[in-house]
Amino acid sequence: MDMQSPLQSPVAPRHLEMGAPVIVPSLLSIAKSTRAFLALLLAEIDLHPGQDQLLDRLDPNAPISVSALAEQLAVRPSTVSKMLDRLIEKGLVARIANSRDARRTMVQLTPLGEQAQTSIRNVWRRLETDLVASIPADDLAILDRSLARTGELLTQKLRRLR
C-alpha cells in the first residue's frame, strides 16, 4: 500500500518529479535564520524565542485560559505551562483563578508584561525593517501574499493531523 504524505497532493508538482524539493529547504533555512536572528534580538530584552509569541497573544484586559493560549500558539498546554513558569518568575504574567470554573487556570498580563509586550513589538519591527529594506515593494507584496497562503495551508493541514 502506498503511503501518501499528509502534505502531498494526489498529483506531485513537476519540480518534485524531476528532482529535489525546492520550497521546503528554503522555508527551513529562512525559519532557522529568522529564529536565530530573533533570538539575538530577544536576548537584549531578556526573553527567549517563543516567549515573545506568548506575550504578544495576551490582552491585559482579558485573561485567557492556558488551553486557549496553547491552541492559539499551536502547542501543548504543558508547553505553555512551562513557559508561564519562567514568565511568572520575571513578573511578566500571572496565573489567576477562573471565577466560573476553579479547575481552569487563567493567564493575565502584568504591567511589567505590558512593557515587555511593547519591547517585543519593537524588536519585531526592527527585524522586519532589516529584512524588507532590500526587497523591492512589488516583490514584497507578492512575498507577503505567498507566505500568508503557505502559512494558512500548513496550519490547516497541521490541524487535520492533530
Provide a brief overview of the structure:
With about 160 residues, the protein is mainly alpha-helical.
Mean pLDDT: 87
Number of strands: 3
Q: Helical amount among residues, as a percent range?
A: 55-70%
Structural class: mainly alpha
What's the main sheet like? 3 strands, antiparallel
Written account of the structure:
The chain has 162 residues and is mainly alpha-helical. Helices cover 62% and strands 7% of the residues. The protein contains seven helices and three strands, in the order αααβααββαα. A three-stranded antiparallel β-sheet has the order 1-3-2. Helix 4 crosses helix 5. It starts with 13 loop residues before the first helix and ends with a helix.
SSE layout and pairing:
Elements: H1 14-18, H2 23-43, H3 51-57, E1 64-65, H4 66-73, H5 77-89, E2 93-97, E3 105-109, H6 111-132, H7 137-161
What keywords describe this structure?
mainly alpha; Arc Repressor Mutant, subunit A; 3-stranded antiparallel sheet
